[in-house]
Amino acid sequence: MNLTVYHEFSDDLAGEWLDLLDKTNGRSPFLEFDYQKLWWETKGGGEWPRADLLLFAARMEGKLVGLAPLFSTPIPDGTVGLFNVGSIEVSDFLDVIVLPDYRDEFLTRLLGEIQALDLPGFSRLSLCNLLDSSPTLAALTIAAEKTGWQLTIEKLQHSPCITLAADWETYLAGIDKKQRHEIRRKMRRAEESEIPVDWYIVTDPATLDTEVDAFIELMENDGDKVAFLKPEMREFLRRVVHFAFDCGCLQLAFLTVDGQKAAAYMSFDYQNRIWVYNSGLNRNFQSLSPGWVLLGHLLQWAIEHSRSEFDFMRGDEDYKYRFGAVDRFVMRADLQPPVK
User: Fold this and answer.
1) Burial of 145 (0-12, 13-18, 19+ CB in 10 A)
2) Taking Cα atoms as reference points, which of 204, 236, 209, 223 lies closest to residue 281?
């Protein structure tokens, strides 16, 4: 196995990267080459002002079999840490990208190569936002034992998900009776409202930038998101929307009340699943429960279009469980090199 370290996202890698993703498990939109590249160019919307890229690519007989996009950065304890590209705030699911048959060898080699680089001040490698079902976690245990690294694995956040039924009524029958009644009641009230209530998914590229601005404006109605939405983060979100639109996986949806935008969800329609990325709400229309109503329509759309899962990704907000989501977790694997 030959490992090469890249210090930039060369477009020459894009084709190989895509071919490798097609052959691996655990694919997510956050592992696409174009997403990883734009994340790096913006440093996660300004999350990491100081960072140096260390993109490890493994080949066997010239064929790409593994990728570990990492970056080094100073951390608060005064040392230097390595993190996976995409960490931590804006990329819900991350992982290494490797063919299953080479996973153990790749991770063992990766730890050896990192140690051989002898980075000044280096103290730990943190692989963030791995799903608890990721085979990387078990492979890291093997690699750490072989190389003498100290491994700590911890839960970071809840990550609830709905496995979708074959039809809308079967889905509703599978959730709590009280919540089923609430969903039906709120959707019916909106449908029967004297004020027109409609919803739509953005499809027109000519209106995309205007719709993104409207989405961000709805996000700002949440006080917790105002501090998050710095200029760098707004630019990052705009670029993510364009990335998703260009690759055909954007689902930006709005619910309108009398023509005014009352709620919005930005999701990825990717690999036969809906991945709910962010949302916004106009509280002036709270009496019509626009967030619940739009979410109900999106779930119904996903079922009618034979999507397999409705993934809420990170966050343990109560409404996710009321709609029938089952918990999972994203994890962080911290590895410290052996003392010399």
Assistant:
1) exposed
2) 223
Residue 214 structure tokens: 């409207």
For residue 51, give both structure tokens: 């960072």
Distance from C-alpha of 252 to C-alpha of 240, rounded to nearest angstrom = 12
List the pLDDT tens digit at each of the 340 positions of the chain: 999 999 999 999 999 999 999 999 778 999 999 999 999 999 999 999 999 999 999 999 999 999 999 999 999 999 999 999 999 999 999 999 999 999 999 999 999 999 999 899 999 999 999 999 999 999 999 999 999 999 999 999 999 999 999 999 999 999 999 999 999 999 999 999 999 999 999 999 999 999 999 999 999 998 888 888 999 999 999 999 999 999 999 999 999 999 999 999 999 999 999 999 999 999 999 999 999 999 999 999 999 999 999 999 999 999 999 999 999 999 999 999 998 7
Domains of the chain: 2-157+329-336 (3.40.630.30), 161-322 (3.40.630.30)
Interatomic CA distance for residues 53 and 208, integer angstroms: 31
Whether the model pTM is above 0.90: yes
User: What's the chain look like in SS3?
Assistant: CEEEEECCCCHHHHHHHHHHHHCCCCCCHHHCHHHHHHHHHHHHHHCCCCCEEEEEEEEECCEEEEEEEEEEEECCCCCEEEEECCCCCCCCCCCCEECHHHHHHHHHHHHHHHHHHCCCCEEEEEEEEEECCCHHHHHHHHHHHHHCCEEEEEEEEECCEEECCCCHHHHHHCCCHHHHHHHHHHHHHHHCCCCCEEEEECCCHHHHHHHHHHHHHHHCCCHHHHCCCCHHHHHHHHHHHHHHHHCCCEEEEEEEECCEEEEEEEEEEECCEEEEEEEEECHHHHHHCHHHHHHHHHHHHHHHCCCCEEECCCCCCHHHHHCCCECCEEEEEEEECCCC
Gyration radius of the chain's alpha carbons: 21
